[in-house]
Amino acid sequence: VQRGMGAYQRIDEALRLPVEPTAPPAPRDRTSTARPAGPSLPGEQPALALHDVHFSYAPGRPVLRGVSLAVPHRRYVALVGRSGAGKSTVFALVARFYEPDAGAVFFDGRPAASLTREECRRGIAVVDQNTHVIHGTLRENIAYAVPGASEADIRRVIELARLEEVVDRLPGGLSAVIGERGSTLSGGERQRVALARALLARPSLLLLDEPTSHLDAINESALTTVMKDISQECALLVIAHRLSTVQHADHIVVLQDGRTTAAGSHEELLSGSVLYRELAESQMLRPGGEPYGAAPGQSR
Ligand code: ATP
């Protein structure tokens, strides 16, 4: 009975959570229907664009104070900034957990405010720092959102997420039971399972929060290749603290105190953004990725 009561209380808490309205919410700032700014392929709107977005969790305490960025299709864009700059908040707005106070979010050139949350989220996958595996086989964990996925598709995402050695290692491979009472996976392996799961749904936009926080098993140079491979499949927006992870991104956006203050390539930002250079120096990175303490060209 005590175990049942504990479970009941957790279910009751979930049932009492407010239900999201399904209709498109009225935008708080109806004047913000301007077209998105930023790079895109000719004739193609970016998969995601934010146009001068402002947002506060509590009145009078702005967190985002003018965020503009664009993630074109099949491009790898990174969002960097100090802790507390508002990076995760940008993701929360893109996933429509919150609505901007002013400014607008666009998906494929369409204002998010004109779409239902369901419509916005249909093409988005998010892999954040809190990855979950369920008690079940590795295959069930990967195919969780696409239960009828073909063998070829599952193999494709295993390769993309660099999960082959995990499949090879676990007794039973894809049929190995993982999760609460199954084989334990490391944090990095769980994150790669979450990545494979997200990619299987063939999102048009993938949001990755801190891909290196647990991806210890993939070294950072291999991770760069992973990101490039993924961006061949969808638009990719990555939050990262470690600049070495994102220095090869197609475009890097710097977020400072809730504002996008600079954008460009790693090299452009090293010379054009004081904050970016400070972050790079604090992480001991030369423009080529070597530590500042090492001779140029010397590998880390
Ligand atoms: P980090 O790199 O440390 O993850 P971040 O750049 O992602 O930081 P956010 O998590 O977006 O920053 O937080 C930006 C600001 O908003 C911080 O001051 C944080 O305390 C505040 N904040 C974040 N989430 C909430 C919330 N749910 N309610 C109130 N304030 C929040």
Provide a descriptive summary of the structure in words.
It is a single chain. The chain is an alpha/beta fold. It has helices spanning 2-15, 87-94, 117-122, 138-142, 151-160, 164-169, 187-200, 220-231, 243-246, 266-272, 274-282; strands spanning 48-58, 61-71, 76-80, 102-107, 110-111, 124-127, 136-137, 177-178, 205-209, 235-239, 251-256, 259-264. The strands form three sheets. Strands 6-9-10-3-11-12 form a six-stranded mixed sheet, sandwiched between helices. The longest helix has 14 residues, at 2-15. The protein is globular and about 55 Å long. The chain starts with a helix and ends in an 18-residue tail after the last helix. Residues 28-42 and 292-300 have low confidence and may be disordered. Adenosine-5'-triphosphate binds next to helix 2.
Report the average pLDDT across residues: 84
First-to-last CA distance: 57 Å
Point out poorly predicted stretches.
28-42, 292-300
Helix content: 25-40%
GO molecular function: ATP binding
Region (Disordered): 19-43
Keywords: ATP-binding, Membrane, Nucleotide-binding, Transmembrane, Transmembrane helix
Protein name: ABC transporter ATP-binding protein
Q: What tags apply to this protein structure?
A:
300 residues, alpha/beta, 4-stranded antiparallel β-sheet, 11 helices, 32% helix, disordered C terminus, binds adenosine-5'-triphosphate, ABC transporter ATP-binding protein
